[in-house]
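tl;dr need the bound structure. longer version: we got a ligand (PRP) that a collaborator sent over and nobodys looked at where it sits. i said id run it. heres the input, straight from their email, havent touched it
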Amino acid sequence: MYEDVSEVLLTEEQIQQRVRELAEQISADYRGKDLLLVCVLKGGILFLTDLMRQLEIPHAIDFMAISSYGAGTESSGVVRILMDLNTSIEGKNVLIVEDIVDTGHTLDYILRNLSTRRPASLKVCALLNKPSRRQVDVPIHYVGFDIPNKFVIGYGLDFGEKYRNLPFVGVLKPEFYR
Ligand code: PRP
């Protein structure tokens, strides 16, 4: 698997260090509040579980699965919910946990949808951010890393459902996706 990677963009150590910093900040910001982490499947799972282990405050978790329609790997902006939350978020402090924000369409949809359910607060924590790809302006309150516009895999991110288990974020060799 590692031989499919042309470059390691973020090492396991860099990711884990940044996750610790984010968790420290989130713990301080949400101390004494009813925190619900909403993980967006599937990419967000590794980030969620590492973040949870580092949080110093009580919190609940829930999951959503989203699908975006589009030609090939491009997001079309047409998004729908494949799997919804199990619980009501009314009155809760919701923190969306995403692996990556690219065009912003997915997050924009989730934010619009969840905000109608009257949470006490609604914020976003994304490990990776590709600002150069943005088509919709979305708020990201906690960002792990701003990254360049490269085809990234690992740490939850897939290509054809593979590579999600890599502990680092790498760039896939072009011969694998061309
Ligand atoms: C990825 C990622 C975000 C979304 C970001 O999910 O996890 O949810 O794309 O892209 P956008 O900003 O252009 O909308 P993907 O649809 O690849 O599903 P997955 O997490 O199951 O791999």
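gonna send this back to them w/ a short note. The pocket of PRP is lined by residues 40-43, 68, 75, 98-107, 158 (CB under 6 Å).
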